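Hello K.,

You asked for the raw outputs rather than the summary table, so here they are, unedited. I folded two proteins back to back in the same session to keep the settings identical. This is the first:
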Amino acid sequence: MALVAATAFFFVETQRVTAKWKTSLTVSGLVTLVAAWHYFYMRDVWVATGTTPTVYRYIDWIITVPLLMVEFYLILSAITKVPAGVFWRLMIGTLVMLVAGFMGEAGYMAVWPAFIVSLSGWAFIIWEIYAGQAGKINAESAPLGVQSAFKLMRTIVVFGWAIYPIGYFLGYLTGSGPESSMKMLNIVYNLADVLNKIAFGVIIWTVAVSESEKSVAK
């Protein structure tokens, strides 16, 4: 329900910001909307079967996580021209991370190799937003408000997203199978999803409103 409430808030607030920020805020609302929709499905699967709804969770992530990565591209595009390579590198890192994670959790790949490949995709994303072209554009071209939002967003990617591999490790790599760890996995993943997706949107909303108000003032 927190995701539903966040969706309504972000969509309503698109009317408050200038045109160049509307797409970013709309994407934030889409992230929370898609997540909320899939959580209704996951709740029903859990109630009906008592099993971890891995497939639905990854369907959610395969849609929402690339949208979160797009936000880095969009907030930079709102203030300067950004090469398409930034977009594609973020997408490739995201897909490597998600596909490997799913293959490990679903049993299509040994859990350790899948874990390592997935971490590699995550590390590539972190490199791009810190030391890669996206990070450099933010440092060199973005106003202070956008720089601050960008830094907060990438902090979430490092520390907030760390919850996911920790959950994967505890659920699959400590000697206990996913069946005995499903409650812990669901709690970890659910809290991480709600906090990270809503927090991402709130950061976008903050910078969008701030920069829009500056534009109007001028």
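The second followed immediately with the same parameters:
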Amino acid sequence: MKKMGIFLFLLQMSVSITQAQTLLRLSDCRNLALENNKQLKIGRENITKASEENKAAFTQYLPDISLKGAYLYNQRKISLLDEDKFLPVGTVMPDGSFGFTPEQINNQWTLVNGSPVPLDANGNPFNPSADPGKILWKEHTIIPKENFELDIHNVFSGVVSVIQPVYMGGKIAAYNKITGYAEELAKTMNETGIRDVILQVDQAYWQTVSLAGKHTLSQNYVSMLQQMDHDVQAMISEGVATRAEGLSVKVKLNEAEMTLAQVENGWQLSRMLLCQICGLPLDENIVLTDSATEAVPTADETANDAVNEAFANRSELKSLDLATKIFKKKEALVIADMLPTVALAGNYIVTNPNSFNGFQKKFAGSWNVGILVNVPVFHWGEKQHKLRAAQAETRIKQAEMAEAKEKIELQVNQTTFKLNEAQKKLRNAGKNKESAEENLRYANLGFKEGIIPSLNVMEAQTAWFKAESELIDAKIAVALGQAELEKAMGLASKD
């Protein structure tokens, strides 16, 4: 029963440890990093922003409808007269003009060249048409000042306005194109960020795989030297080996244990870095499915084909192409500022008080329609300067595109050569490993037979450890070279 209890306890511990581990493939790490990376989240928001701006640009084709209202309090009223007015009472003459008869005025009359002419207050004759102020009217009608006062203490107004662009010089179409290109640009820039993150994940992932493999290798090397130390100590006890041989084995064992400790620390730090990139807690117990002992693809790449594929796939080139198109459309915006613009306008205006039927303190309104035309005439060459500046920006982007193609071609060639070199080293490392294993096998047989000293066995063990370590480095170099080439060719993906 006691043994059964110990067995169940160990089984439970094994299950809990297994459950605490997080098994990750390379694709899992990529997906986690893409989901949790802060810069990629910003990139996704930039795409949303550009998409909404593109939709907003389309609304410029549609009529603009607005409703405005206002209230105004005035301290004083408006009076159309400065005082009460007295108007003379005259007669409508047969010809329809306003005039008077001698009975309607107090002026004296005299004859001038046989015609009656009125006299002013001083007794001098005058022409009533030229000097109507000298007429002495007998009767007047009064216009009171207070009847011409307008109460504008409280004024309310409102307007419904509709403006429909008809011709804006191509500005609206150019703006829509620019925002459309900007949305595509945000997507391509996010693709560039995705490829950068994927390469970063691959580098951390394969570095962790490498250190995990070297950790296992170092453990095996330490176990091998521990067995050698045990055997040599037994031989010293039997008098068939010297203490110097025993000390040499212990020195080698200490060096191997120190190397194991360094590799273990590096492995832990590498796992923490991978967790940080993937957005996992740093102390997450992750286990990677890939192993440094597995085979890796060794197919050679053709540089010319890779360059052509990179030109077709690299998001950086797409971004520069879109940027060039954007600046080209900015030229169209500047040209549009030089052209006339035409728009239709309609308004309905309501006020209180209103003057549509006398002066009334109530709401009343009316509508109007019209055409708005703006024709630029002279701006001291400002538009021409802006146009030349926009054309210069377009040429800058074209030059950057040409430079980027040169750099991408160089990068693809460098990564292709690097990958091919890593594959050659891998093949040589495989051959060296086979030779080292064979040499170690013969050394162990000779040591057991007593014909090979322990020093030669340790040399064979060291050569084997070095060959195994170089093979791991070569495999990881091929994996990293393949990841770098995929990024350079624009093929990196999360799958």
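Residues 171-238 form the longest helix (68 residues).

Happy to rerun anything if the numbers look odd on your end.

Regards,
P.
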